[in-house]
Automatic annotation (TrEMBL):
Residues 1-43 are annotated as: Disordered. Component of the exocyst complex. One of its GO terms (biological process) is exocytosis. Keywords: Exocytosis, Protein transport, Transport. The keyword Transport applies. It comes from the Eukaryota. It comes from Nicotiana sylvestris (Wood tobacco). The gene is LOC104219741. GO terms for molecular function: phosphatidylinositol-4,5-bisphosphate binding. GO terms for cellular component: exocyst. This is Exocyst subunit Exo70 family protein.
Length: 636
């Protein structure tokens, strides 16, 4: 009812009462009973006026009255009239409440109740039609977009504001920014608030739950997430399960950021006037789908076949839940949805346990690796490559692994000196658990390599093997996240060890060549002594070149450093000796047998070293990522 009409209606009886009391004050005292018998009561007047205004509007849209009302949508046909219809229902409900306090058995109240039921049926029909016919405009992605760029009206009291309400209700007045999704959401809220206010909230909620729950269920299915039993997961081939995990990883991002987030926004908006309805609606709609989504990782962690190489899928799932945890808490914040939060947290815990188990199995598999065939040329062992690739991939998950390893019971202190372990860890300054774990895994690898070096018959090859493999480890650490986990101190200490191994290789492999030359080549010598030195150098250099021609140094820096170091110890001395005595020797017969190598020949032959390729079949490793039974320590 317009405020002006209501004001006139309310004031009219009062003026009449004042006039009557003045003219009859000398005859009899005022009496409400005599007033009531001569004039309609105030509540009667309000009810009459409300019925007079509401009945034509409500009956016009009674589906049982005309075919037009049965097949036409009020909100789609005439948005201004839809707004007036909502106002009529509000006014009718207020008048009924006011009138019932005066006369609860009035015929007018019965008539008003009948109109209210017709109106509510109309609103139910509109609510259902808007929800079912505008699924495209109410998809979670559209809702999230609308929510992020504009705010929508927030209470039924806005209906009383003529100018403001035109902006939301009247189709012709909607701004370019507020698209159709915004209008549809506003319509749903108007209807929901009107029905709840009129005491028909259950009917409204029932429609909403049925339609929106089916949308969530369909979306979860289309995202490729299905409810699997423990036995199904346990029996599933890894290739099949891996595909399902990939589907889940794609699904969880869409489900949290778009599906459930958009549904929560819509539910909060439509039922903003009633917190308990908002909670019950969203819980009913989202709970089943969310439980299917967040129980999958726990199912995989508990029932899938375990092996170290599968840890990365577990880490992917752990990361997905951990990264979305703040959103999960915000979206599923209602008390009735604590079971959803609990399920997501349980999946995190079980994934963490499985990841720690996989790491332990990896270490045991590494401990039990038992190949004994030396790598040709002292090259890089496949064990080194496999283990470092694995550890580097693990290091990419350092953020979540920090949490996972921090939750594990602290391991017993390993009685190894810091100079060997490379990481400072004391009671006063404890190292992070993840740094210790990675440092320990690499240490186990280096122990295995130490043992494998013993299978070389030539000791110099053993040291070249250790230099090559440790250099590979150090380079991998420096070019990955391991650099930040192990620290500069670790890198510096192990770079020094590479130099020590390289120096030992050089000393054991080339010392007889260096020693074949005089320490002071400028010192005068007898011709026979000169010939003897040339012959000794020819023999030792030829033998060294033959042996070292099979050596491999894959790292270019280490290769260049070795060649430069060896050349510096041989070439300057030999060149000086060669230049001083060559002239005298070439005059003699058979001088070619005495001087076999010019300094340039020595330089070229040294520069050609360390380039041969590793023969793959001779360097394979028996290392497999599979669970083992016992712990044998570092030694072979």
């Amino acid at each position: 009812m317009p405020k002006k009409d209501l004001r006139n209606l309310c004031c009219s009886p009062k003026r009449s009462s004042d006039s009557t009391s003045q003219s009859t004050s000398q005859l009899s005292p005022p009496s409400r009973f005599s007033f009531s018998s001569s004039r309609p009561s105030f509540s009667d007047s309000v009810m009459d006026r409300t019925l007079e205004m509401a009945e034509p509007m409500i009956m016009k849209w009674d589906p049982n009255t005309t075919t037009f009302a049965k097949v036409t949508s009020l909100f789609y046909e005439n948005r201004r009239e839809a707004k007036d219809f909502i106002k009529c229902v509000y006014n009718l409900q207020k008048a009924m409440h006011f009138h019932s306090t005066e006369n609860s058995k009035s015929d007018k109240l019965v008539r008003a109740q009948s109109l209210m039921q017709i109106a509510v049926k109309r609103l139910q029909k509109e609510f259902y039609q808007i929800l079912s016919m505008n699924r495209a405009h109410l998809d979670p992605e559209s809702i999230s977009t609308v929510s992020s760029r504009t705010s929508i009206r927030s209470s039924s009291s806005d209906i009383d504001d003529e100018n403001d309400d035109d902006r939301v209700i009247a189709g012709e007045s909607v701004s370019e920014v507020e698209d159709f999704s915004t209008v549809v959401m506003a319509d749903l809220r108007l209807i929901a608030e009107c029905m709840i206010s009129s005491g028909y909230g259950k009917e409204c909620v029932k429609i909403y739950k049925v339609i929106r729950k089916s949308i969530i269920a369909e979306a979860i299915y289309r995202l490729g997430v299905e409810k699997l039993s423990s036995s199904q997961v346990h029996k599933m081939d890894w290739e099949v399960l891996d595909l399902k995990i990939k589907d889940w990883l794609n699904a969880v991002n869409v489900a949290v950021k778009t599906l459930f987030n958009g549904e929560r926004i819509l539910c909060d908006h439509v039922f903003v006037s009633d917190d308990s309805i908002r909670e019950s609606c969203f819980t009913e709609i989202s709970k089943d789908g969310a439980m299917i989504l967040f129980s999958f990782p726990e199912n995989v962690a508990r029932n899938s076949k375990k092996s170290p190489e599968k840890v990365f899928r577990l880490l992917d799932m752990y990361t997905a839940i951990a990264e979305h945890w703040p959103e999960i808490e915000a979206i599923f914040s209602f008390d009735s949805e604590s079971v959803v939060r609990s399920q997501a947290l349980t999946s995190l815990i079980k994934l963490g346990e499985s990841i720690r188990t996989a790491l332990a199995e990896f270490e045991i598999a590494l401990q039990k690796e038992s190949s004994k065939t030396p790598v040709a040329g002292g090259g890089i062992h496949h064990l080194t490559i496999d283990v470092m690739n694995y550890i580097i991939l693990l290091a990419d998950f350092s953020n979540v692994l920090s949490d996972i390893l921090a939750e594990a019971p602290p391991p017993a202190k390993v009685p190894l000196p810091e100079s060997y372990f490379g990481i400072s860890d004391s009671n006063e300054s404890p190292a992070p658990a993840i740094s210790l774990r990675f440092g320990w895994l690499i240490l186990v690898l280096l122990c295995k390599l130490d043992g494998k070096a013993k299978y070389y018959k030539d000791v110099f090859l053993a040291y070249l093997f250790l230099a090559n493999n440790l250099q590979y480890v150090v380079v991998k650490v420096c070019t990955s996240n391991l650099k930040y986990l192990l620290g500069e101190n670790w890198i510096t200490k192990h770079e020094e060890k590479v130099k020590q191994f390289a120096s030992n290789y050089e000393r054991l492999g080339w010392s007889h060549v260096i020693e074949s030359l005089p320490r002071e080549p400028s010192t005068s010598m007898a011709p026979n002594q000169v010939k003897e030195i040339f012959k000794r150098f020819n023999s030792s250099f030829a033998e060294a070149h033959r042996k070292h021609s099979i050596c491999v140094v894959p790292d270019s820096k280490l290769r260049d450093d070795l060649k430069i170091s060896i050349a510096r110890k041989i070439l300057p001395v030999y060149r000086e000796f060669y230049n001083k005595y060559r002239g005298a020797i070439v005059k003699e017969r058979h001088s070619a047998h005495v001087i076999r190598f010019a300094p340039e020949d020595v330089e070229h032959q040294l520069s050609d070293l360390f380039f041969e390729l590793i023969i793959e079949s001779e360097s394979s490793s028996s290392f497999e990522f599979s669970p083992s039974h016992t712990h044998h320590g570092c030694d072979e």
